[in-house]
Amino acid sequence: MSGMSEKLSTPRRIADDHVAQVAALDPMIATRLGLSPGDGRQPDLSPQGFEALAELARRTLSALDAVERNAEKDGVVFEDVERNCARLLRERLTAELALHEAGDHFRELRNVNSPLHKVRGIFTLMPTDTDEDWATVAGRLRNLPGALDGYRTTLAEGIAGGLLCAPRQARAVIGQLAAWTGRDNGGTSWFATFVAGGPEGLRPELDAAADRATTAVAGFRDWLRDTYLPAADGTPDAVGRERYLRSARWANGAGVDPAEAYAWAWEEFHRTVAEMRTEAGRILPGGGVRETMDHLNRHGHTVVGEENIRAWLQQITDEAIDALDGTHFDISGPLRRVETRIAPPGSSGAPYYTGPSLDFSRPGRAYLPTLGQQSFPTWELVSTWYHEGVPGHHLQTARWTAAADRLSRYQITLGAVSANKEGWALYAERLMDELGFLTDPARRLGYLDKQMLRIIRVIIDIGMHLELTIPADSGFHPGERWTPGLATAFMAAHHGSDTARRTSEIDRYLGWPGQAIGYKLGERAWLQGREASRRRLGAGFDLRTWHMKALTQGSLGLADLADDLASL
């Protein structure tokens, strides 16, 4: 945006131009949005690449300042949709620059959603229907080593400047990269597996490119192990108050009051513990919550095999779409298409969702990490798939995408606030409970267990990073200060996860400070907004109407979400 042109005369036009320019700089964004399908580049993860994105953010903010000054001078009043876009754009870019200017990108190494994960994740978003598509895949595989070289330079500057992640994060990523290559256990690399479905005519080219990518990943893993990990020795797991608040603001779209959120989460904890005990008693009279969960894992409904659990979860989503469409939501056309997939090896331990392309040629997809598991108790998966699919992430993201005629592209893509999206998905789980979809005691205990996980996240995410004291009435190490070890034990006592999942979760909270609290804080905002609208409208409140209005608002941070929802 070298000098603002006449056409960039509204916040929405500035925001959409920003998306276009980010997509031009970052092929991961372009691929995610379904733009530039023949582009074989990898993201530029060098310091210069990060600075280019930051400079673009600065220019966009300057353009927004100029437009708003001119509008005020000329007496122009923007419509609500324009004001909402301007408000979001300013908040998001300001928060983004705060992270950049603090140098956080020099130490952004963690087990989920780090820059490193772009270099593999980009392939799962690419079209693979034609020979031309596969030729682009081959080119992108050949460019992967260069992306890793740039990222190594960024992390090396972090080492030189004393900006490093904790050893725990480096070790987690080293383990993931080992899984990507498959070499430690004599297996096949993820890249070789990915290209196996390509056309025979391109087989030599694809195989050679996959081997080149695998070798580069192995070399990067070795550098992390031999150079980065020793340099990171002594870096604490906890990031401290200043960095925590900066990161939490980015994830939540608002300043966070850690003391208030921590105290509220403990109230939610005690309430949910009581509810879980009641539900467990319906399943195994006389048994405790943990005993009941163990009973369900051994004797409850179980699906065996990755393909079978994928198909079973797809059925859960399809049934939800059929039941909710026309009653509590309008789900038509491409919104009805969402795929369940098994996550590739070396992913984080938690299920996740990727949204559709802007033209819906690539559908939304919900991924289940299996972590080597072949037997899947279903009691804890049903509400999770409501969270990831319908009415959770997919319905919100697809509705935003379908509303592109009235929202800026920024509001439905780059401007998405994590706490808004995760809050909606957690609200979606609660909604399905309210609507009677979780009356089976086992499935309902699974829902409550997922609610408990999100409550635990608030408690230990804030507690670990700010090294807070555990309350006297907690029933768990009262008066002690949180450590990763205590957080792991607390999760083991109150959530039905296995050891691998707990380790992945704790790694995630420590490496991505402030993000995990957005689930419950976001759900609280959604519930507060709905209740305020219900009180305002009285008998005129209609849940289906409210849902559809709420899902066409586009992204909002938590500073604005509840108030906007209350006005619908």
Task: Describe the SSE topology.
Elements lengths: L10 H15 L1 H7 L13 H28 L5 H22 L13 H10 L6 H31 L5 H15 L8 H6 L7 H30 L8 H12 L5 H26 L5 H11 L2 E3 L1 H19 L13 E5 L9 E3 L9 E5 L6 E3 L4 H7 L4 H10 L6 H4 L5 H17 L6 H26 L17 H11 L4 H13 L6 H20 L5 H8 L10 H6 L2
Parallel strand pairs: 2-4
Antiparallel strand pairs: 1-5, 3-4
Organism: Streptomyces filipinensis
Protein name: DUF885 domain-containing protein
Summarize the structure in words.
- This protein is mainly α and 568 residues long.
- It folds into two domains: 11-236, no CATH class; 248-519, no CATH class.
- Helices cover 62% and strands 3% of the residues.
- The chain has a three-stranded mixed beta sheet with strand order 2-4-3. Strands 1-5 form a two-stranded antiparallel sheet.
- It is globular and about 60 Å long.
- It holds the Pfam family DUF885.
- InterPro entries: DUF885.
- This is DUF885 domain-containing protein.
